[in-house]
Amino acid sequence: MEFRTITWKVDLEIQRIGIDEIEHISKEFQTFERAQKEAQKIISDQFSNNINLAPYLKELRKGTHISYRNAIADFMEQLLSSGAIFNSKKEIPSSIYRKDYPPDIHNKYRDMKIWRDDSGNQIEDTEVECEEKEFKIFGTPYPEVITFECLYGAHPKINTNIVFLDKNTANSYKHLTFQFKYLKKSELERGQVFNCKVTLDSNFKKNKSRYSAQILDLLNRSNRPLKQCEIVKAIKLDRKTVWRNINALIQSGTEIQKDENGGYYIPQKDVVLSHEDIEIIKRSILLNPNVSIEEKERLLALLSKML
Question: What's the pLDDT tens digit per position in 6-34?
Answer without folding.
Answer: 678 899 999 999 999 999 999 988 777 78
